[in-house]
Structures are given as structure tokens and as C-alpha cells.
Amino acid sequence: MASNVMHQRRQQAKQDRQKDNQNKPTTYTGKANIGGPWALLNTKGEPVTHDAFRGRYYLIYFGFTFCPDVCPISLQKLSKSLDNVRKSKEYEFFDLDAIFVSVDPNRDTGERIDEYCKIFHEDLIGLTTKRNDSPELKDILQKFKIHVSKIYLTDDDQKEDLKTLKDNAPQVVEMLEKTDAQKSALSVKPDEKYTLDHTIVVYLMGPDNKFLTYLGSNLDEQAMTEIILDEVSADLKRHVRK
Predict the structure, then answer these.
(1) Euclidean distance between CA atoms 228 and 204, whole angstroms
(2) pLDDT, tens digit, 9 for 90 and up, residues 108-157
(3) Distance CA 86, CA 46 (A)
(4) Do β-strands 57-63 and 96-102 pair in parallel, antiparallel, or remain unpaired?
(5) What are the DSSP calls for 53-64, one per residue?
(6) Quick count: other Cβ atoms within 10 Å of Cβ 189?
(7) pLDDT number for residue 24
(8) Residues 6+ apart with CB under 8 A from 166
(9) Which pLDDT value is given to residue 142?
(10) Stretch 15-34: mean pLDDT, rounded?
């Protein structure tokens, strides 16, 4: 039953994308006005821009390491999809990277982001800025249409979030307990007791840093893999025709 439901979702996703693409230019350039030049920092504090991925396709997801549910689940699916694509016969014709952008640098240190990314995939690239109000972070969030809003938590809320995180990704909790930044769920400063409501989507970007498609949170890793391969194949064919 579950497999039938996911098959229907994959088919519906493909049908929706086909409808969106009807009567559209084959280049897809600017079709959703998503993406553009960006500049962030890696986990060592070194500058990284979109130019670092020139000639490579990349998946990009925005979240934060304290997220109790959607981020761990989304990154698990993203990582499995990345592995699936890299194991495919088509992969000899292109390269694919995966990026996690922390929208919460006030709490997410470079070391924390680095350890967090390794939990999901050794090749997951962690990027962020110096602070939550950094112009560079605001710029990329605007360009990728990512909404982020802060919600302050009570002690009970924090306990519930920690329980949820343990249920969804126990390995993340183990990592948090080993970091100096998070010795316990209630040891943070009062103004740091918050969660972030944010847009849950993975974007697939082309080797020219152009938006190709989005991968919604309703998809499983198999559906994500199929869509990535379909979109990359179509993009490669468009470039051959030019």
C-alpha cells in the first residue's frame, strides 16, 4: 500500500512538472526566478561563492542543526538520493554536490555544522555566515525564496523538541551532547531558546548556477533520485543542442 502511494506521488510530481513546462522555453532560464550569485562561509570561516560549483550540479538545502524533525529527515533523504545518483550509470556524464546552509549561525558554529553534516553524508558541504542578520545570509534566503521565522520556546517546548529529535535522529542528539556548545537541552541562554520555522525544500541547480527544479518534502529518496536524473539528463541534452 505504501509503495503504491509513493508511486502515485512520483507520477503526480512528474505530471505537475510537465504541466509547468508546457509552452516554456527549453532553456528554463529564469523560469522560477530562483537562485543567483551568492557568497557564504565554509565551516572553517573561509569565503565560498557559487563560482566554486561552476561546471557542477548541486543540491542545496536550508536548515539548522537544532531542528528536531524536518531537517534530519530531509537531509537523510537528500544524502540517500545523492548516493543513488552517484551510483547510477548516468553519473559518468556529470558531477553532483550537496550543500547544507545553516540559517542559524548565531548558534550553529562551524565545528557544529561540520559534525552535523558528517552525520548524514561525508560529502555534504556545510555553509553559513557570521550571524543570523548577516547581509549575505539575507541575500541568499531572498534569492532562493526561503522564509525563516523565529519562535521562542518554553522549557517544556525544548524538552519536547529534544524528544522529537531523539525519535527522528538519535545520532544527532549524540553529536550534540559531545559538543561544547550544547551540553544539555536547557543550558543555552534565554535568548537562544528558540526554534526556526523555515521553508522545507531541496533545490537542484545547474552547472551554470541556474535553477532546474525543486524537490518537495513529500518525496522519498527514490522519487528524488528519479527527478534529479530526469532533470540533469534534460539539461545535458539542452546544452548539447546549443
Answers:
(1) 7
(2) 999 999 999 999 999 999 999 999 999 999 999 999 999 999 999 888 88
(3) 27
(4) parallel
(5) GTTSEEEEEEE-
(6) 7
(7) 38
(8) 173
(9) 98
(10) 50
What's the grid cell of residue 10?
Answer: 512520483
Q: What is the DSSP string of 67-93?
A: -SSHHHHHHHHHHHHHHHHHHSGGGGG
Residue 232 has pLDDT above 70, yes or no: yes
| Strand 39-42 with 201-205, pairing | unpaired
C-alpha cell at 67: 531542528
Average pLDDT over residues 82-88: 98
User: Taking each helix axis from N to C terminus, what angle separates 2-21 and 221-241, rounded to the nearest 10 degrees?
Assistant: 30
In order of their start, the domains of the chain are 35-241 (3.40.30.10)
Residue 80 Cα distances to 85, 106, 130, 223, angstroms: 9, 29, 29, 11
User: What is the value of pTM for the model shown?
Assistant: 0.81
Query: Concatenated DSSP letters for the chain?
Result: -HHHHHHHHHHHHHHHHHHHHTT--TT-TTSS------EEEETTS-EEEGGGGTTSEEEEEEE-TT-SSHHHHHHHHHHHHHHHHHHSGGGGG--EEEEEEES-TTT--HHHHHHHHHHH-TTEEEEE-SSTT-HHHHHHHHHTT--EEEEE--HHHHHHHHHHHHHH-HHHHHHHHHSTT-SSTT-S-GGG-EEEEE--EEEEE-TTS-EEEEEETT--HHHHHHHHHHHHHHHHHHHHH-
Length of the chain measured in residues: 242
pLDDT band at 12 (very low <50, low <70, confident <90, very high): low
Cβ-based neighbours of 216, under 8 Å, separated by 6 or more: 13, 201
C-alpha cell at 95: 558531477
